[in-house]
Amino acid sequence: MARRTQVTARQERLGAELRKLREAAGLKGREAASLLGTDAGRLSQIESGVAGVSEETVRRLVAHYACTDAALIEALVAMATERVRGWWEEYRGLLPSAFLDLAELEHHATYRADVECLHIPGLLQTEEYARAVFAYRIPELPSEELELRVRHRMGRKAIIERPEPVPYEAVIHEAALRIRAGDRAAARAQLTYVLELSAADHVSVRVIPFDRDGFAGAWNTMTLTGGPVPKLDSAQRDGPEGTALVDSEEQLSSLRLLFRKLEAESLTPERSRDFINRLAKEL
Known about the structure:
The chain is an alpha/beta fold and 283 residues long. Helix 1 (9-24) crosses helix 3 (40-48), helix 4 (55-64) packs antiparallel against helix 5 (70-81) and helix 7 (127-135) crosses helix 8 (143-156). Helix content is 51%, strand content 11%.
């Protein structure tokens, strides 16, 4: 297959998982390439996502690597052979690639979980709230790009609004609910919208109130996205250099535990709905 000029995070992940399997098998790149009947350069391109890979090649590689996890193998084959051109592709060349990667990741998700302490999670934002957040950037975005970002964020909601939605859980600190990205009316509309979405069976919203004793985890903003098998789960963390994708099993395990810890700090979904409803009435 020809080399790609643009590599998505999903394509990179496929290559990374094949590399992990090779390393677990104790094989050097040149050794694995020889078994495949190619050169180390070609294998390197596959493992970096620059070169596409066929179903046959994936199955040959995992056989050489003695991988017996049937569910993982089928998931990797699906990643290699999918030719889906999602709605996010209309933004290619118009928005940063990270926006497209996130939408693609969500499209294939088996579950989604967010922790936010200062902002309403993107999947729960109204159009007016999202516009206010993007407009606060320095330097300011051109109006055309700002509207593209807002439209893209609204498009991402498809995963919780489609006929077969993704199970979604959000843990939100009271601070995020009280901070007004817009005016009072916009803040009330945003809280009302969160309440409306949280009424769905597949959506769970939990609140960590200010008066929770012993809460020192306000910096723990994160996103967890379920893959077809747990080994293909992903996480996102915000840092000084921007958003980073996490896919190592050790880090994912730690973040899953951290999410459950934060969840335990929060109110139940039922009490959280009452809490948000009370805040909305105060506005």
